[in-house]
Each structure stands twice: as structure tokens, then as C-alpha cells.
Amino acid sequence: MCERCTGYDKRTGGGSCFQDVASIHLILPDRPRSWRPEYITGLFFVEKTQLFAINFEKLEDMNLRSLRVFVLIMDEGTLSRAADRMNLSHSAASRLIQILEEEFDVVLFLRDKKRLIPTLEAEQFYPEALRILSQVDDIPNVLAQARSGQQPPLRIICHSRIQNSLVLPAMFHMGEAFPNQALKLEIYPRRDLARRIAHLGYDIVISTLPLPLEGLKPETLGSTELAVAVSRHHPLAARASLSIKDLAGYSYVALDETTVIRQIVDRELARADMSINVTHEVSTSAAAYRLVYRGSGFTFADPIALDPELESEIRLIPWRPVARVDFGYFLSPQSRLRETAQDFAALLREEFKKRSEASSI
Length: 361
Fold this sequence. Notes:
By secondary structure, this protein is an alpha/beta fold.
């Protein structure tokens, strides 16, 4: 038995040396180090190239329900909402968290009356728990693809700001160029993007920059000038450019402080030692554009992120002083579809160039 099999559950009598079961890497790619063989019981191997059956009952009993409750508490913010999502009683969900903490000898939440406050250990464990659950949940799909001989989908992750204007058009052209290649798009708020994808499977991630991802450097798509977005009927719509002073007295539809655009704007305002009163605040560019389209004020935008269906109704006016928004993508070093991801990146470049050249700025 090789060193890789150290700790394998001998009690079941199932399986053999991991040297003979290379296919486990197909089923559980990039599995975390904490995923030890003893957690998996009832493995039945025939040959390297054949599929095998896995009995995850013990794993489910030991960890998975606790992990799901933990992830839902992190996502939902309260134990009650997590219990509701799992169709569990409050006491049952609480007990599952207690089991998880006891099993790994760690405190994941501080109890403050009815609130659960995540500890540093919980924040660090959260992406790992997401990855484990994602891999387990994806097993039926992986098995189905392996049986059918289908190519796995290209896994694309982006945030909502660029989905309609950049990513979806590139996906359309990808489908035309590679009709047999399936695509899987996942969209997260940018403020959660780095945490979400840090330990989840992906082939390519598209985002405004910077986006801190440990150990990964982005490939640059390009940059565009930040502009002031107003409706075609706004009093400022005919201006050739706009400064901070020009915007005084007009309603400002601001993005929230977690967005790149808001951070750029606030930085420039601080440099000028000036401010703009926020009239409305929204968390997505799509919401801001629609408020602007309906005459609720101005917002800040760039030609790459502006929804295509609103281009004829909204004017982008250069903002002075010049501020730029950078865009890029990350390729997974573990991807089995790296060449396909590069093909998709080439289409993204074409789409980015086309939208930049068509800009009205």
C-alpha cells in the first residue's frame, strides 16, 4: 500500500491502493487535504478506467448536514433562517453546529443572545466548506458526464455588473464557435467574489480589477474611462464633459461603498476635497442605470458595464479629471479545460474591444 493510502478505512474491507484508483481524481478534483479517505466508506473498484460506487452515508451522517447548516448560517446571518432553509428545528440546527465544533475542536461562532457571530476560524473555514459541499453536490453531474462521454462544462464566474454587456455576448459567440462545448455561468456580487471562488471549482473568472485572489495574477482585458451616466433628457445631457462642480445640485444615484465604481469616485472626491450628496443608493449597476433611465438623477458608469438595451436611452459623458476602470480575468491553474478557457478569453477580448470602440464617450 502506498503512502497516499495511509489512513484508509480498513474496517470496510473495500477498495484497494489508491495507485489503482486514479479515477478518484475525476470524481473529487482538487479535494481538500482535510478530505481524508476514512470519511468515505464502501468504495468498490473494478479497474482504473471504470466508474465506482461510493456510499456517502457515513460522510453525510458525520459532516455534511453540519457543513450545510454552517454555510447557511454564514450566508443567511442567523441560525433561525439556516434552520428554516434546511427544514430543521432551531435546536436540531444548533446541535449540528455543536457537533461540527466538537469534531474539529474549534469554536465557529460566538453566542450573543440570539445572534451568532462568526469567529476568525469560521471565516477561514467557510470557503473550504463551500468547496467540499460543491464537490459532493456535483458528483451526480460528473458521473453522468463520465458515463455519457460528454465534455465537462466550462465553468465561468463573474459579477452581475458585466454579465449582460460582456460575459453573455461572449458566451453566445462561444456557442457558435464551439457548439459541443457546454458552458456553466455563476454570478456573485463582486464584494463576495474573491471569498466565493477562492476554493470553488472554476475555469475562468471575469471581473473589474483589482480583485485579490491569493497566488493568482489576472490577465488584463483593458480599461475604460469612468463617465457620468444621465438620461437623454437630463439637463446635463448635452455637455461635452462634466466635473465635480457641474454635478452640484443634481440627484446622485450612488452605488454602495463595496463597489469598484463607488470606491473610484470617493477616492477622486477625497483628492479634490469635495463631496456630492447621495440621493439614492443601490447595490448594483443595473438598478442605478434603470433609475437614471427613468430620470431619477445621474450615476457613474463605464461603457463596458452599461446594459446594451439601455445604450440608446442613456448618455455617457466623460468625467474630469480622468479616472479609469480596469477589467481582467483569472484562469484556474487546475482547470482541465484550460485551452477552452483561453478560447473563451479571446472572445472576451474581442467583445471588450468592440464595446470600447463603440463607446459614446
